[in-house]
């Protein structure tokens, strides 16, 4: 054959071979047993240009059934960024078996092993669920060529130290014995490295408390109906992600959480929030290593909440393998409690330029408060934990935490104490607060502070040292008794100032309600505010329905009867310098009208050195009620050691004496030796009772409950609505200290 013709045939044969190679490269393996038939056709020309065609005989080939298997992955070394797991927690790894042959096959697992830990589960993963595997026995579902199935291994890792690296291997074997190459097997390998577990703490460091604030501070004074914003911040300091992170917050009765406002790092997550009663639950998900989350939600203060009450709550954060972690407490104080104001004009008249100075009660030296804000250097600032709830630029308005501090036009003030300046529950810290302002009498107030259980809030009790009135907790109403502020931070209540007057006159009565036949004891105090005054008359006018009880009058504790003309009682003094205290008794007559208010007014008239008259007056009110109690309520109760932990006084429990109980208006009583106490006449309506923990004797301590409806809480809410004339029984249970 001529060379050109031979070349034509060679080219034709090469084309067939390349087609077979292309099919193999594309992975398009024909099933085993497939018959392939091929013929060749050759066309050539002779010397005269004539063409001829010839066709070969047919050649047939049958493909053999070949088994092939691939187990993946096949890792050669550990990758710590992707193969870490939390030390001590179960470890799950998944392998993939792929049928690489040209015939259907099923597989058994010949071997599965872990370099550490214990293999506790081995299963094929199918659409119908996991199928447990017995080595060399359980057969997988049949796989067509190219199909695959997954195998899941679960390994317990208890006792494996963090940093330990180990392999996990799996060997699979085919089961189709009809394959031309017989049974085949393959192995895969993965790695694992034990890493430290997740660890949740506050944003200030791995040992800091998870931070909870309300309106970005620890204590926020709020009005009924106001909406406040809570925020909780926490960080993962561990070596592994924290999974299934959940926050729960039991919001106190009186506050209503709004789950629709829940947001994580500024993104609304209402779909992950739920409210069951007072318990808000937010499912946060996964917190990466080193990541910080801040959850916020809004809540409303219920209308009718009593002024001066503190609503305190603590949230909890938990995750897989992490027990619930408590947050710092956040406190909502009903009312306003950080204003220096004109006591005569009321809360609408703040005092500008008032100088507030905190002193050590014993030494009278000025207290060195921790520096905050821009004025605090790294060496002078308080420990970070003490500054939770203090903005970076300081707590307004006293951002540098100066002592003394001068009020601005709004009369507001703030003081931040370090933990060491709060004293202890058994040994409270005692300070003297001095206040001076142009045109006002100087003030001296004793401030007793003790920390709550967290050490981040404090209870403050104010007592006047200057015979001037104080303000009721959360408000501007003047009260003569001591004032108690429970679980607050950065404030000491509203502080009234009183303008100087030539005459200082006050009048009080021992009962604010009475009925026919009751005895009333009045006290009048009259004195010169500045220089001595000359001839002075004290004229007391009794209201209709009240008669003087002869022989009961005392002046400076010495019997001195007044001049009586009708319903007026008059005492005369040649001069007035240091002042006089007048006490006398009256009786409410049976004909005094129920519901009437008996207003007893005292007028004082004195002569100055220049002969001018100066006057002053004061009054005391008593409301008439029917019967011995009328529409008042009586609150009784007991403070006791709850030996059985039931919250109810029972056999074996014992009362605790000399414990002081406060009402929200500052009124207080002390338990008798059996632990019993009584508020005999209280207005109907809501009231808050609080145990002064500083008066608890050694050997007992609070349970730590915070719910207002729990007898194991140190604060109890008395509803008192529609309960006039009834008796309320409120007990406080304590546990014995070890």
Provide the descriptors you would attach to this structure in a database record:
738 residues; mainly beta; Immunoglobulin-like
pLDDT below 50 for ≥5 consecutive residues: which ranges? Answer: 5-27, 375-386
SS class: mainly beta
Total separate domains: 6
**What percent strand?**
over 45%
Estimate the helix proportion, in percent.
Answer: under 10%
How many helical stretches?
Answer: 2
Largest sheet: 6 strands, antiparallel
Mean pLDDT: 87
Give me the Rg, rounded: 43 Å
User: Kindly, what is the distance between the CA atoms of the first and last residues, rounded to a whole number of angstroms?
Assistant: 116 Å
Q: Give a count of the beta strands, DSSP E runs of length 2 or more.
A: 58
Short description:
Helix content is 4%, strand content 46%. With 738 residues, the chain is mainly beta.
